[in-house]
Known about the structure:
It contains 16 helices and 15 strands. The chain is α/β, with parallel strands linked by helices. It has two domains: 170 residues, Rossmann fold; 186 residues, Rossmann fold. Strand 2, helix 2 and strand 3 form a beta-alpha-beta unit. Helix 9 packs across helix 10 and helix 13 packs antiparallel against helix 15.
Amino acid sequence: MGRKRVLAVIHTVTYGKRLLDVLSLLEADFRLQIVFTAPPHDFGDDVPAFLAGLGSVVLPWDQAVRMTFDLALAAGPRGVQHIDAPLITLPHGANYLKRVTGGAEAGVAGLRRQDLMPGGRLPAAVGLPHRADLRELGLNCPEALPLAHVIGDPVADRITASLPLRAAYRRALGIAEGQKLVVAVSTWGAQSSFGRFDALLPRLIGELPAARYRTALLVHPNVWSGHGAFQVRSWLARCSRLGIGIVAPGADWRSVLIAADWIIGDHGSVTLYGTLTGAPILLATSSEQEINPSSPAAILASHAPTLSPTHPLVDQLDYVAREYRHEEYAAIGSRITSEPGRFNRNMRRLMYELLGLGQPAHEPETVQLPEPLPLIARAPGRGEVSA
């Protein structure tokens, strides 16, 4: 039986996690063979272990670029101009939050010409999460506008579908009755909140009574890859020994985010996805220089309270809980996707159109997120959550 071949291009663990939600839409179709490849990337050191954990067929990059496929998927631009296949490009995070300033690289990351047309070659389709992104695309890379499809956001849909399981996630994490969970979130880069963890961590340790509060850290996989897991664990070792949970880069952070009572974050995607959970948000940092001013991250930065260096942390958490207006954050969250609950339907239709195949005769399901592993008192292995 001849099978059509689908290539998943995995640059980093973050990109790989995004594509797994997409590839789940091709499950149980014996007409298809899915294979993976990993182009060279600055933050790609953990990709081989990630792919090995999937038990997937992995083609060496130099072999993949010599082959022909019936469809390719990528959440990043590096090297995809060398892939011989109809290519669908997708964002790897919430919307298009970051901008690059200065010189030829300036523009909205993910929507620039060099992001969508590496080597001058257009993809077969550009998947966008929100109709408002069409304007940004037209300004940044008008050549790609005819190829754009507003399909929605898979992470937003899975978080929303999983909100009813919040109590189960909290039990799985080991949050006791009456305890509150504070989740501190960081993107990557010099302006991320991780760059200020040396000031934040002592406050999480010293100011939150252990009987009432549990704390978990969600640090972007690029931080782990860029500095090395040994170094990140070394920096956070004392936090772990003192009871702060450290979510490993391979773990699914989304259920942890849903379990939170407060989110202390920055201008990254995870903080923005937090607007979907109902948890009050406190910004430890938010780089105006790095934020796309047309993105929902810019709206969040102008609305969410900012962490004060002088007032007691417990008082600040109480304040944001009192002042929190769910409808305001819900409006920001609605800017993540203009196709809420419809990513699976839209994306599956697009993939099968490019494959030249009829879709399976059933509605694609948005699967609720699995329960997280408990916060445990030892250093995390791959895929684990540690305290």
